[in-house]
Amino acid sequence: xxxxxxxxxxxxxxxxxxxxxxxxxxxxxxxxxxxxxxxxxxxxxxxxxxxxxxxxxxxxxxxxxxxxxxxxxxxxxxxxxxxxxxxxxxxxxxxxxxxxxxxxxxxxxxxxxxxxxxxxxxxxxxxxxxxxxxxxxxxxxxxxxxxxxxxxxxxxxxxxxxxxxxxxxxxxxxxxxxxxxxxxxxxxxxxxxxxxxxxxxxxxxxxxxxxxxxxxxxxxxxxxxxxxxxxxxxxxxxxxxxxxxxxxxxxxxxxxxxxxxxxxxxxxxxxxxxxxxxxxxxxxxxxxxxxxxxxxxxxxxxxxxxxxxxxxxxxxxxxxxxxxxxxxxxxxxxxxxxxxxxxxxxxxxxxxxxxxxxxxxxxxxxxxxxxxxxxxxxxxxxxxxxxxxxxxxxxxxxxxxxxxxxxxxxxxxxxxxxxxxxxxxxxxxxxxxxxxxxxxxxxxxxxxxxx
Length: 451
Fold this sequence. Notes:
- The chain is built from 16 helices and 15 strands.
- α1 (about 45-55) crosses α15, α8 crosses α13 (about 385-400) and α15 crosses α16.
- It is an alpha/beta fold.
- The protein has two domains: about 20-165 and about 200-240 and about 420-440, Glycogen Phosphorylase B (Rossmann fold, 3-Layer(aba) Sandwich); about 260-415, Rossmann fold.
- About 45% of the residues lie in helices and about 15% in strands.
- The strands form three sheets. A seven-stranded parallel β-sheet has the order 5-4-3-6-7-8-9, with helices on both faces. Strands 12-11-10-13-14-15 form a six-stranded parallel β-sheet, sandwiched between helices.
C-alpha cells in the first residue's frame, strides 16, 4: 500500500498542533481527519459531494483527508491551480484493489473491495496519523451509505458521521414497473437494508460513537435513524450549490414547445419509462419535447419504449455529455423532470434550481425535502399508476407559462438554501459541540453578541 501526503506549509509531518484561533474570538481551528473515498473537484455525484464538503469546511478547520487514489490526478490539478488550499488540506491517496472483470459484469461488485480492503487500509493510515497528530474530530464523509460506516469510529476521538443515506426503502408498489432486473435489484436492496438496519453490529456501534454528531441526508433518513438506532440527528442535504448559476430564469416564448429535460444514468432505478408513459398521456394538442441526457445499458430498451408509446419523434437522446454541455441544455430548458424511484438529493436537482429550472419529481426520498410548492411540483409515488398520472398532470400545469415562470423564480430562491458556506457553518457547530463543548458554547455566545 502506498500513500501520498501533501505537506502543509509550516507544519512538519507528525508535528502535533493545538487547536488555534481563527475567524475571531471563540472560533477554533480544529484538527480534523476525514474519510472521503469519493472526493473530486471535477466529477459530479458522490465525488462532487466529497469535494464540496471538504473545501467548505476547510475554511474553518485544518483537514487531513483520506481518499481513493483514483481521485489523485484531479485533486493535484486543482491544488496546482489553487495553492492556497494546501495550507488547509492535506490529502492521503489510498489505492483500492480492483477486479475490473467482475465490476464490468456486475457494477456493485466494487463494494466488496471497498468494504473489505480499502476501508481497512484507510483505517490503518488514519490510526497512524492519529497517533502522530492527535485529531480533535474524526469525520466519516463518503460514501454516504449507512451500511459502510468504515472503521474510523474505532479511533479514540470524537466521531462525526454523515450526511448519511441509504436507509429508506424503495416503495414496494413501484418495483413491478422497473422491469425484471430492476425489480430483483431493488427487492434485494430493500431486504438487505432491513437486515443491516436490524442486525449490523458495526453500524450500531458507529451510530453510538457518533451520537451528537449524526447528519442525516434527508428527513426520511432522520426518521429511520431514530426508529432503528434511537439516535437524534440533524438533517443536511449532501448536495451543495454548483459554481455556475443564473441570475434570472429563461422565459418561454409563445411559439416554443415546453422543453423538458431528464438527466441521469439509464439504469432501472432512474425509471425513465414512467415519464415516457406520462408523456404519452398528454393532450394531443400540447406542444412539448424531451431531451434525455445520459447513457447506460437500458438506452436501447428505453428508446424502444418511446417508439412503442408513439412519442419517439419528440425525444432527443443526447447521451453522456460534459458538465458544461449539461448546464447549457439546462439553461435552455423550461423544466426538469425526475422519475427516480430512489435517490437522496441528486446533483442535477440542485443544479436545476440554481439555473432557474422548476422541478417535477416524485414525492419521496430527498426530493420531498428539496422541492416546495414555490419551486416545483411533487407528485404522489405510492404506486406506478399514481406516479405516471401525477407526472402527466404536473407537465400539463407546467405548460402554463405564468405558473411555470413563477416556479422558475422560486427555484433560484430555493437554491440559496444549498450554499456551501451555510453547510460549513452548520458542520462547524457540530464539530465544536463534539470536540470541545465549552468552546462550542463560547462560539455560540460570541455569535449572539455580534448579532
